[in-house]
Amino acid sequence: MYTKNSYPFLWSYPILFVFLLLLVASFSVQARDTQEYWIAAEKTDWNYAPSGGNLINPENGLGVYGNTLVYTKYRYIGYTDNSYSQPIPQPEWMGILGPTIRAVVGDIIKVHFLNNTDLPLSIHPHGVMYNKDNEGADGGAGGSIPPGGRYTYTWVVDQDAGPGPDDPSSIVWLYHSHVMAEHEINLGLIGTIIITAANKARSSRGPVPRDVDQEFIALYMIFNEENDEESGMKHTINGRIFGNLTGFETTLRQRVRWHLIALGNEVDNHTAHWHGQTVLDRGHRTDVIEIMPANMRSVDMIPRSPGNWLFHCHVNDHMMAGMSTRWIVK
Amino acid sequence: MYTKNSYPFLWSYPILFVFLLLLVASFSVQARDTQEYWIAAEKTDWNYAPSGGNLINPENGLGVYGNTLVYTKYRYIGYTDNSYSQPIPQPEWMGILGPTIRAVVGDIIKVHFLNNTDLPLSIHPHGVMYNKDNEGADGGAGGSIPPGGRYTYTWVVDQDAGPGPDDPSSIVWLYHSHVMAEHEINLGLIGTIIITAANKARSSRGPVPRDVDQEFIALYMIFNEENDEESGMKHTINGRIFGNLTGFETTLRQRVRWHLIALGNEVDNHTAHWHGQTVLDRGHRTDVIEIMPANMRSVDMIPRSPGNWLFHCHVNDHMMAGMSTRWIVK
Amino acid sequence: MYTKNSYPFLWSYPILFVFLLLLVASFSVQARDTQEYWIAAEKTDWNYAPSGGNLINPENGLGVYGNTLVYTKYRYIGYTDNSYSQPIPQPEWMGILGPTIRAVVGDIIKVHFLNNTDLPLSIHPHGVMYNKDNEGADGGAGGSIPPGGRYTYTWVVDQDAGPGPDDPSSIVWLYHSHVMAEHEINLGLIGTIIITAANKARSSRGPVPRDVDQEFIALYMIFNEENDEESGMKHTINGRIFGNLTGFETTLRQRVRWHLIALGNEVDNHTAHWHGQTVLDRGHRTDVIEIMPANMRSVDMIPRSPGNWLFHCHVNDHMMAGMSTRWIVK
Fold it and tell me: Which residues of A touch C288 (CB under 8 A)?
């Protein structure tokens, strides 16, 4: 490490500082919106395979993973307002994921959190700018909200929260509880934030990118339900196993963005593979995207071949354990 | 997920559609060739260390991995024509890999598959465009070819099968059997497809890129021969252990492209490392390329230093278990 | 594989050859410096948690990982000259790392190695150009230096050792002992080389990039101290656990480069995560960088939010086992 006073170009710093001030000022001006969300943490039953069967290879059944299908999970549920009475419906393919928070660079995000469970919980976001009280972790005011408690998190969507120069027009960030993070992630307290670049949004108020027709999110994660017993190792995509996640449906020539995320443990090194179609990953063509715990990858696809295709982890044991579902091109 | 009718720019779609039609038409015109291959699946003996010894550190021997060296494997073998009588010779460094299928963007690939084994098998390709019957997996006509059966797969090499804008002039895709994929991959039914960009091919009929002098393929994979017993965990590069893969030979200042692939299980997270030389990985300089199951990476090297160099997995246990060989610069 | 004599464009080769000669000549001219280092290998005590406590969550303590904190390690220590009497002080955040070797593309590096231990050891560098005797591995003259022995390694910093076209202005390479590499890496014989692009150095003699104010290095590695017993699996950043690595301190708006490296075994697949700030990874915005054994990643950050933030592995078990520390923005 070296120190600043050894630098020959110090004279340039005041200029830099003025530039930064102008930059911050320009953000304030162009701030289009405060994106407001009401999210409750709730204790619910979760069924890893609502059909009760293996929808990929029905004749194979669910193996030991079918011994028990329903477990108590903790989830983030989105509501329309601060009465927390009207849950916002989610597409079927979102599975166990909490509500998707969307914003454009320049926006402010406000998340009104209600902890309707019996554990102290929080919401810790990746990517966005916050001070200690809005970190949702590690000792600030929002770091641990007691059962029944409420807290409003304020996050700033600055340039450093948005797509980089080689990223697509929107990128995905994780959010999750972070009081005892490893425990609460396994409970199911997981969601995503999608940030669109300032000049790529569909309209002045809508945070959806205009060069994309459809966005899907896929969380690859092995939930550990029975203290490492194999029957409780649920190898899921968005919390479903053996094809029980439905709704990844699109049509030919749509511009589809896939946001891929993973969370978990040493076994959660996944390789998401689509049959039937490739994706563009920052200029690289592939049909396999590797994701390790907390990786966040946003890749683009324009479906070319109609069909009912597999979408699965290419790690052999994971595929066999049910980490597989279907995506449909009409 | 949002729906198309909420978009303000729908008027642009007909234009897009006409553009796409023209694009498809232009492919038909520029299609240069049908690349035709005759590939049989065969049951053979495979020796993981034909020399019988450790060619990296002879004094260390092969350890438990040397207890048994020859196992029954299933392999893809390339033939000159539909008599399947004349196998196409492969360079020694290809080891257990099936024949390399080559094509240029715009081509059609036809693979005439003969299953000369006692198991139902298939050929499932990554990357290329196919309909359900040509997927080689998951229920289509080519999804499971019985013992003695034949099937011709037709794959379209469209733009989405070729290098992306930031890829080198050729990229690698896997193919493998996909009836019970995890089992058949471990049997050895693995090969690659190399696709060259349309304007980067060496000639109008040759699918080899003209900005490259030599291409090598390296599959990092741990074959599991004895139900997880360590002595049967063969830590291989192209199916050989402890330096028994020979033939990675080049000369100073050649333009060498390395296509790296991995397959397998939770332990198959590999970090391929060359001594003596670095590679360029889409603009990034390194000498270690990480590959997880089904990852496919194509990186470029111009050898600068003559020598007999190691090429090995940098994961400690893997290196110790024989995942190491040599590459030679003359 | 195909051979050169099948190429239609052979006429271009003499031109290429002349170009290469000119290129090599230009390097000789612009070679600014020989970077000279005196490095000894020494046997020392190492304390994984000098504070004796858990500085992240003090109430949780150190668990089984606290049973024993001090072990015998082998380290690379930098000295001012060939008397090896005056060790070069290192910042606290460097922890167990050996001295950082710095050079600019065009330089020569000379490392005068003294093996002050009871084991044969070496220094094997990544990235730089060497012949067999300077490889520090695999049989050359510098491949195994006996206890008490000395050896001077000469490494050439050619273009292929410097940043690629899409890399930042400096990149990190590992060096480590490579007689029995897997054993010596676990002993602690690890350091880094940082190479700055020729036109990006701060001055004609200083190898530090001028577009960066501060550089940090973080090694994520699980040291195995007790033959796989969990209490001996020290989940470290630069050799410290549970917040005992101190000194990652910077100020708002500094241009900070983080060089991330990993080494080790099958469990050493890490995902480094910063709270409070994102990084730019070759044009991609993220706050999680995945590193597998021997991966070397250099990413940039401009701190935006003051605070005392976590920096930890996002793999659940690793985080719980102490792979966590703090970075501070003032």
Answer: 126, 294-296
Grouping H, G, I as helix, E, B as strand and the rest as coil, residue B24 is: helix
> What's the token pair of residue C42?
């020494």
- pLDDT at site A207: 85
CA distance C225 to C321: 14
User: What is the reported pTM?
Assistant: 0.91
d(CA C279, CA C301): 5
Nearest residue to B321 (alpha-carbon basis) of B246, B189, B225: B225
Predicted pLDDT at B237:
98
The three-class DSSP label of residue C53 is: coil
Nearest beta carbon to residue A280 from set B4, B164, B265: B164
Which of A316, A318, A323, A326 would you mutate first to test chain B, the one with the most B CBs within 10 A?
Answer: A316
Asked if the Cβ–Cβ distance from B266 to A315 is below 8 Å, we say yes
CA distance A28 to C148: 64
> B24-76: per-residue pLDDT in tens?
444 444 556 999 999 999 999 999 999 999 999 999 999 999 999 999 999 99
Query: Smallest Cβ distance to C164: which of B91, B284, B320?
Result: B284
Residues of B with Cβ-Cβ distance to A196 under 8 angstroms: none
Q: How many helices (H) and strands (E) does chain A have?
A: 3, 19
Count the Cβ atoms, other than its own, within 10 Å of residue A25.
Answer: 10
Residue C291: closest C-alpha in chain B: B290
Residues in A closer than 8 angstroms to C275, CB to CB, are 124, 135, 137-138
Q: Which helix (H) or strand (E) holds C309?
A: strand C307-313
Give the ipTM of the model, two decimals please: 0.90
Question: How far, in Å, are C79, C113, C188 from residue C144 at the CA level?
Answer: 21, 11, 17
CA distance A98 to A79: 11
Cα distance between residue A121 and residue B133, in whole Å: 50
Tokens of B25: 């038409």
- Tell the residue number behind the tokens 């668990």, with chain if given: C63
CB B104 within 8 A of CB B201: yes
Burial readout B133-161 (b: 16 or more C-beta within 10 A, e: otherwise) = ebbbbbebebbbbeeeeebebbbbbbbbb
Q: Could you report the per-residue pLDDT of A191-237, keeping only the tens digit for each?
A: 999 999 998 998 766 788 999 999 999 999 999 999 999 999 999 99
8 A C-beta contact, residue A290 and residue A269: yes
Q: Where does the pLDDT of residue A13 fall: very low under 50, low under 70, confident under 90, or very high at 90 and above?
A: very low
Torsion of CA C46, C50, C55, C60, to 10 degrees: 80
From chain B residues 216-275, the ones with a CB under 8 A of any chain A CB are 263-266, 268-269
**pLDDT at position A149:** 98
B34 touches chain A (CB under 8 A): no
What is the arithmetic mean of pLDDT over C34-60? 97
Assigned token pair, C29: 């001219």
C residues 165..204 contacting B (CB < 8 A): 165-167, 171, 173, 181-182, 185-186
Q: Do C271 and A293 touch (CB under 8 A)?
A: yes
Q: Is B314 on the interface with C (CB under 8 A)?
A: yes
Asked whether the beta carbons of B88 and B37 are under 8 A apart, the reply is no
The C-alpha angle A139, A36, C309, rounded to 5 degrees, equals 25
Closest CA to A217 of A257, A273, A250, A249: A257
Q: Which two tokens stand for residue A236?
A: 């899921």
Angle at C108 between CA C198 and CA C128, to 5 degrees: 80
* Amino acid found at C316: N
For residue A266 the two structure tokens come to 């040493």
Instruction: Label residue C250 by pLDDT band (50, 70, 90).
Output: very high
Amino acid in the structure at residue A202: R
Question: If you count them, how many residues does chain C have?
Answer: 330
Q: In what order do the strands lie in the sheet with A124-125?
A: A101-104, A190-196, A170-176, A124-125
C36 phi/psi in degrees, rounded to 5: -115, 130
